[in-house]
Amino acid sequence: MYENIRLIALDLDGTTLRPDKSLAAATRAAIEDALAAGIQVAVASGRSFASLPREVLEIPGIEYAITSNGAAVYRVSEGRRCRQCLLTVEAVEEILAVTPESCAMETFVEGVPYARADYAADPMAFGASPRAVDYIQSTRRRVQDIRAFILKHRNELDAIDVIVRSEEEKGRVRAALKANVQDVYITSSVPQLIEISHRDAGKRAALEWLAQHLNLTLSQTAAFGDAENDREMLRAAGLGVAMGNAPDEVKAAADAVTKSCQEDGVAYYIRKILSEGN
Prior knowledge:
Blueprint: E1 7-10, H1 12-16, H2 25-36, E2 40-44, H3 54-57, E3 64-67, E4 72-75, E5 80-84, H4 89-98, E6 104-109, E7 112-116, H5 117-121, H6 133-139, E8 141-143, H7 146-152, E9 157-163, H8 167-180, E10 184-187, E11 193-198, H9 203-213, E12 221-225, H10 231-236, E13 239-242, H11 248-253, E14 256-257, H12 265-276
Parallel strand pairs: 1-2, 1-12, 2-3, 7-8, 12-13, 13-14
Antiparallel strand pairs: 3-4, 4-5, 6-7, 6-9, 9-11, 10-11
C-alpha cells in the first residue's frame, strides 16, 4: 500500500496544525521529505484560500490546495483556481429563507472570508474555542449586514457557514436545510458550524478531481483528517488516516489511525509511509 502513494492530502486544523494553529517543525520536515521523495502534498481544508496559513503554503513543492471544503481548488504558486463549484443563486436564497436570523453567518467570495461583525468581534460568544479566536479575527472581513452581503454576492459564493449556539439548534437548522435546500453539500468541521457548499464540492470530490488532474488514481492517494468534513475523503483515498484526536465515527471511516495533532501525528504517519514504501 505505502509504496503506491503519490499524493498526500492534508486537512489543516486538528490535523496538520497543532491545537494552537502552529505548524510543528517535525511536521514541516516530514512534508518536505515526502516532497523530496516525489510525492505530491496538497492542502485539503475547510478554510478559504485567503485564510490558509502562509507557513504551510510557503513550503516549496506544495502546488495545490483544496479549499472551502472542496468548493475551490487552487494552484498555489499562481494563486489561481483550477476548479470551482459555486453555490447556485437558488440555493443561496433557500439557505437564507430557512436559516433563523438569530444565527450568525459567514461566507467565502473568491477565496476571501466575510463574517457577521459581532461574530468576528467575539467568536467565543458564538461557541468558538479560545484557540480559534485569533484565527477568526485575523482572517474574517467584518460585515454588519451579512445577509444583505450574501444576497448581493449570491452568484459568487464558494460556501456559506451558519454559526449555531447549541447541538439542538444545529440539528434543527441542519434538518431544515436538508429538507428545503437543493443542490448543496452540507458538512461540519467544528461543533458551532454548519458548512454549506455546492453539491459537487466536498473534499472527496476535490481529491478525485486533483488525482485525475495529476494522472493518478485514488488508490495512489493518502488523506489525513480529523472531522466530519474529512470522512468521505478518508473513505475514498487509497489510504485514509484519521488523527488520534478524531471522533470515533471519523476513525471508523479511515484505514488507519495515527497519533493526535498535539503529538504531530501527521509527521509520524508520513514517516511510516516513507519508510515502509521504500
